[in-house]
From TrEMBL:
The lineage of its organism: Archaea, Methanobacteriati, Methanobacteriota, Thermococci, Thermococcales. It holds the Pfam family Methylase_S. GO terms for molecular function: DNA binding. PANTHER family: TYPE I RESTRICTION ENZYME MJAVIII SPECIFICITY SUBUNIT, TYPE-1 RESTRICTION ENZYME ECOKI SPECIFICITY PROTEIN. The keyword Ribosomal protein does not apply. Residues 385-412 form a coiled coil. This is Type I restriction modification DNA specificity domain-containing protein. It comes from Palaeococcus pacificus DY20341. One of its GO terms (biological process) is DNA restriction-modification system. Belongs to the type-I restriction system S methylase family.
């Protein structure tokens, strides 16, 4: 029978009685990377990847270093710390390669920690370290703060058990990441094929948008547009100011902005705006019911969204166009996928090129050229791509759930709240 864990008070809070507290500077040393002399974009025999933050985050090396003997070479699993830059204070697990000049390699001077356990501890303290950086220009880690960090020190067998649990969650996250990458590649390939070749076509023709099936047309958006409107269409500036009241706490209707549509939960949590019933009725020209096509006017010009179905009234905020389409000619979701594809983005960029103020005007939108398959084929293409998007959404939600589980585990395990392991079990 497992005995109840007894705790003691320490400068870092309550920890199990058989744990100790150590000052980080007493048990680690670190060595800074150097700027490499010879760098190439392609790998060569005997060269090693340059460990940039992009590579360490995305596992995609973009630079390779010729080994001359002056470089700091690190091995898989070494602990790295980003010393300089906007994200100074971030910890990474190394891959074999050349340490960048903005990073340090951390090494243990005393064998009191399992290396991976120490990494998890440091990741847990990362927000604090990031908040204590120095420098008015390029921020950097404050070595005094780093050295003064107080960390819990469990017995090694318990460290290994904690690592085993956290590593299991990490492996599940990594598998989910791979599934997301695979599904994103599938979606990219499907968009490439379906939006240019369609479904089961054998004969093609050349057009200003490239080669498309013979049965397809190239039309301007104006030809499939029932109405193009925006927030300002509801009245003059003075009338809008007089009749529209916007709240930052829940009210009758959601006041939809482009930033809201970046989320997967609708209305999203956090910085959301609402209007009361009278304001909603005044904004009658831009009421939203779901599946409308919305396009950004300024800033991220031409970015396109499909309005989600929500359980409350919704109305269009500023900086968005509302495109109401002729449903007998075009499917909203098909057009959304076209505008979010590389081909659609290219057309949006080409049309926006003359605009020096970074704004998209109604005439620009109306003059966009689009491929127009028969309506039934549009719906089939949209359905295929929606199925892939639903799979992506499920995978991303799974990853978010796993990350929440890991965060909770780290909070408990790294303070001795969850795991009690006898030394005999690990002999």
């Amino acid at each position: 029978m497992m005995s109840e864990t007894k705790f003691k008070k320490t400068p870092i809070g309550e920890i199990p009685e058989d744990w100790e507290v150590v000052k980080l500077g007493k048990i680690i040393g670190y060595i800074k990377g150097k700027k490499p002399k010879i760098v190439a974009k392609e790998p060569k025999d005997g060269w090693l990847p340059y460990l940039s933050t992009e590579y360490l985050r995305n596992n995609n090396p973009t630079q390779f270093v010729k080994i001359t003997g002056n470089e700091i070479i690190v091995e898989d699993g070494n602990i790295l710390l980003l010393w300089d830059g906007s994200n100074a204070g971030e910890f990474f697990l190394a891959k074999k390669g050349v340490l960048s000049s903005t990073m340090v390699k951390i090494f243990l001077k005393k064998d009191v920690y399992d290396s991976l356990f120490l990494f998890y501890l440091l990741k847990h303290r990362e927000p604090f370290l990031k908040g204590q950086t120095k420098g008015t220009g390029i921020p950097h880690v404050d070595k005094n703060v780093l050295n003064a960090l107080l960390l819990p020190l469990p017995p090694l067998p318990e460290q290994k058990k904690i690592v085993e649990i956290l590593r299991t969650v990490d492996e599940a996250i990594e598998k989910t990441d791979l599934a997301i990458e695979k599904t994103e590649r599938l979606k990219k390939g499907l968009m490439q094929r379906l939006l240019t070749k369609g479904i089961k076509h054998e004969r093609f023709k050349k057009t200003e948008l490239g080669e498309i099936p013979e049965e397809w047309k190239v039309v301007r958006v104006r030809e499939v547009l029932e109405l193009l409107t925006d927030y300002e269409a509801n009245g003059s500036f003075s009338k809008l100011k007089e009749n529209v009241r916007v709240y930052d706490t829940p009210n009758y209707a959601w006041y939809v902005r482009a930033t809201d549509l970046e989320h997967k939960q609708y209305p999203p949590d956090g910085d959301v705006r609402y209007v009361d019933k009278e304001s909603y009725e005044f904004l009658r020209k831009t009421k939203l019911f779901g599946r409308e096509l919305l396009m950004v006017k300024r800033g991220e010009v031409g970015k396109v969204y499909i309005m989600p179905h929500v359980k409350m009234p919704a109305t269009l905020g500023p900086n968005l166009y509302l495109l109401k389409l002729k449903n007998e000619l075009v499917d909203n979701v098909f057009l959304y996928y076209y505008f979010t594809s590389p081909f659609g983005k290219r057309e949006l960029k080409r049309r926006n090129a003359p605009t020096t103020l970074g704004a998209l005007y109604k005439e620009d939108v109306k003059n966009f050229r689009i491929p127009l398959p028969p309506l039934e084929e549009q719906k089939k293409i949209a359905e295929i791509l929606m199925t892939v998007d639903k799979k992506l959404e499920l995978l991303r939600k799974r990853k978010e759930k796993l990350e929440r589980i890991k965060k909770g585990f780290m909070k408990d395990l790294l303070t001795g709240r969850r795991v009690s392991v006898t030394t005999e079990k690990h002999k």
